[in-house]
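Submission sheet (multi-component)
Chains listed below:
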Amino acid sequence: MKVYLDCYPCFVRQALEAARYAGATEAQQRQTLDEVLGLLRRAAEGLTPPEIGDRVHRVVRRVTGAQDPYRAQKAAATREALALYPRLVELVAASGDPLDTALRLSIAGNIIDLGPAPQYELWAVVERVRAQAFAVDARDALRAALDALPKGERVLLLGDNAGETVFDRVLVEVLWERYGLPTTYVVKGGPSLNDATLEDARDAGLHQVCTVIDNGADGPGTILARCEPRFQRVFDAAPLILAKGQANYECLSDQRRGVFFLLQAKCPVIAADLCDLGSDVPTGGIVLAQR
Amino acid sequence: MKVYLDCYPCFVRQALEAARYAGATEAQQRQTLDEVLGLLRRAAEGLTPPEIGDRVHRVVRRVTGAQDPYRAQKAAATREALALYPRLVELVAASGDPLDTALRLSIAGNIIDLGPAPQYELWAVVERVRAQAFAVDARDALRAALDALPKGERVLLLGDNAGETVFDRVLVEVLWERYGLPTTYVVKGGPSLNDATLEDARDAGLHQVCTVIDNGADGPGTILARCEPRFQRVFDAAPLILAKGQANYECLSDQRRGVFFLLQAKCPVIAADLCDLGSDVPTGGIVLAQR
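Outcome: structure written.
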């Protein structure tokens, strides 16, 4: 997805918020804003929002000297999600359709995102998403794809934010227990916003249930050109890809056919971009899309 | 009030919205954004938000060629407010404290503001503001100032947005009928956002109840340095000044002692700036402040 003009105010806001998360002084905040205004002017039209976001958060890290401005927020989000984990497992165990429940929980976890919408009530979101109609609904296509995959083939799950990882773990477990499919879970190669890194995935216990790798890049989403060749080969060879969150959608929606995107539409720009796949995608809509 | 860093994302958003109100093409929207990002980088630290907003909206008008991008919105806001006018008059007539009711209605009308918060339900806001506690409450000081003013002295009322003018008309009538004080009502010398001009004031019927003058400037609020000398003299000589809305507060809060500010705090930046005058000023708080 290319960047929309509506993304620009959001980048400026995010830059300021990220600088403050990093403990920036007033002068550092001002310098961050100034540099970000400049880079937004120079940003080429063909870039995706995560490619610009990557540069924005790079400015924040350089100006503030904070290598991982969201470290504390990420750890807190993982702790909060882990506290809910037993209840998530119970919901799946009690469900007549464990895959559906696990998909919904994974999508519910996508609310943990300090970019577009810093405020949320985690369990209230779980309850909402459990009952909510899909705004874009590729569940049948996903079921067919899972059924067609030979047992033992690996699903590639592109993760998103720390804490959301715990919700994805429930989905990973269902893919293994119900479909006999192991998962390779992908995190970022370095800190970017509140995206999960290897450390965050370990905190969530993901290494206990699947293979966890990083993509070698420290930008948001999956900016293929910046990922390591090792990851690019895994990506190209994967028979089935599940991609979590807005940034992965923004990076990959025009890149490779057949990727399944699981996310909550947390801003009107994404919602509008998805409208050709669903009759009406509202902000807050839950999405399982295949492009 | 000096500009805060939090104002920058809002300027970028407003520029894009204003360009679209003006019917800008995609290319014009892009050029507007590009120029506004550049001017925000160059903006001096000591400027007030309206001084920057003035430049932003000047870019919009120049790039789009629209002399008055908000013309239709202003006319519609005035029509909507005029439809409520008989009910506003009834509320004052039935009130045990007509000045208090008229002040509240004038503050309620301040919701009509396409800068910070384009969405509102006008009558719901009237009902809310009638019952709401003042977050900053200088009513006693204002009553004392009105009582001390010799009959026939003119109150200077600095207007804000089109449509809001109708609500101010009710206050103008109370000042005349209850205090024997005529009002000079000030509008902008040219279009800026949805601020009222002479044309908008006439549409609201203000010329029937008071003297209406313009300040000679086409920026938001009251940027004294850009106003005509004729208006500056009126401002300097005025024994009592009521200033409506955020932009007038932002322009004048550090300029002259004793000005009374009537507004709704429509953004967290203003709310925070006002906090030294009230115990806690929330976004949405109603304010009658004297600096």
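Remark: Chain B touches chain A at residues 5-6, 8-10, 12-13, 16, 26, 29-30, 33-34, 37-38, 40-41 (CB under 8 Å).
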